[in-house]
Write a structure and sequence with these properties.
By secondary structure, the protein is of the alpha+beta class. 25% of the residues lie in helices and 29% in strands. It contains 7 helices and 21 strands. The strands form 7 sheets. The chain has a 5-stranded antiparallel β-sheet. A 4-stranded mixed β-sheet has the order 1-2-5-3, with no helix packed on it. Strand 13 and strand 14 form a beta hairpin. The longest helix has 19 residues. The structure holds uridine-diphosphate-2(N-acetylglucosaminyl) butyric acid (EPU). Uridine-diphosphate-2(N-acetylglucosaminyl) butyric acid binds next to strand 9, strand 17 and helix 6.
Length: 302
């Protein structure tokens, strides 16, 4: 096709998306591309428009369930050096959307910058985390809930709209909600985040504590996409699914984790269809027992 000739970036055809998702599930992408620079990203957008091709951006692939049939059109990854840049200015950091959260935490640690440690262990990229306002929910002994989300750290976010126009949005112009944001309608290029100076020792201590809590409560034994459903207001989807007695329930090689019922793990050859079947079982049982509608947190790409 003509559009392919004008690009400097490599185009992979029929690239198995199971290699790009934390679930290890997903059929082939018709075209899989890591744009080398902004210009290539722009011309890709133009081509997608002109040839009416579907167009999606994949981050770390840690919060998506991709169809077993794969995806038509262009699947784009910002995992290239141009989109992984990082620069420090006083207590602020400018970071590209393609950098992983775990790399980012290590970069901050080196510069003795604190405030983002709660993101440690989340297998996402900066772009994905901003788009869905990734974070954690802290439970005080009083049972009071407190959230820490990446949106709290944002000063500005640079984005490209689907016409190829770059915009610099400041904090006030962005809506951050629980596991969603107004940024999801753009291609996120990078952000400027504000942190505070701290001693490396204190940062290390916090990282260790957050990782410990994750390891105790969550299931890292097999590939997964983290929590599958959003928490309903004031409760935990995991607790509700657990109370329905669904821990350990299997469809094919997909299994509701025995450690945390809001995790579905891939025991080997699970398909998207298996996962969807388990999700609809959990949804049905929770609705039946508690009258609560669970909503998926993961994005379902079919
Ligand atoms: N619980 C059960 N059974 C289970 C799972 C949980 O009884 O199978 C109970 C726990 O004992 C606890 C309560 O439910 O009393 C809450 O569980 P947990 O502390 O594990 O937190 P969560 O509400 O299930 C949320 C986020 C996690 C985040 C943790 C920790 C969502 C959907 N989940 O989980 O985020 O790591 O808090 O901050 O917002 C993710 O988004 O992918 C994710 C894993």
């Amino acid at each position: 096709m003509n559009w392919q000739k004008s690009l400097k970036s490599k185009i992979l055809e029929s690239e198995p998306l199971s290699s790009h998702t934390s679930f290890r599930i997903g059929g082939p992408a018709e075209f899989f591309i890591r744009p080398r620079n902004i210009d290539d990203l722009k011309s890709l957008l133009e081509s997608a428009k002109r040839y009416k091709m579907a167009f999606r951006v994949i981050g770390a692939g840690s919060n998506i369930l991709v169809s077993d049939k794969g995806l038509k059109g262009v699947t784009l990854s910002l995992n290239s050096p141009c989109f992984r840049r990082i620069a420090f200015r006083n207590n602020c950091v400018e970071v590209g959307a393609g950098r992983t959260l775990n790399q980012f935490i290590q970069n901050l640690r080196k510069h003795c910058l604190s405030g983002a440690e709660f993101l440690v262990g989340i297998p996402g990229t900066i772009g994905g985390a901003l788009s869905m306002n990734a974070g954690i929910i802290l439970r005080a002994e009083s049972q009071e809930l407190r959230a820490k989300n990446i949106g709290d750290l944002v000063e500005t976010v640079s984005v490209m709209d689907y016409n190829g126009k770059i915009k610099n949005l400041n904090k006030k112009g962005i809506r951050f909600n629980y596991r969603s944001s107004s940024l999801s309608k753009y291609i996120i290029l990078g952000a400027r985040l504000k942190l505070k100076k701290a001693k490396k020792k204190e940062i290390d201590k916090r990282i260790k504590e957050y990782l410990k809590v994750r390891k105790i409560n969550q299931d890292y034994s097999h590939p997964s996409a983290g929590c599958v459903f959003k928490n309903p207001c004031g409760d935990s989807a995991g607790r509700l699914i657990d109370l329905c007695g669904l821990k350990g329930r299997r469809v094919g090689d997909a299994c509701i984790s025995s450690k945390h019922a809001n995790f579905i793990i891939n025991l080997g050859r699970a398909t998207a269809t298996d996962v969807l079947e388990l999700m609809s079982l959990a949804k049905k049982e929770v609705k039946h027992k508690f009258g609560i509608n669970l909503e998926p947190e993961i994005k379902i790409w079919v």
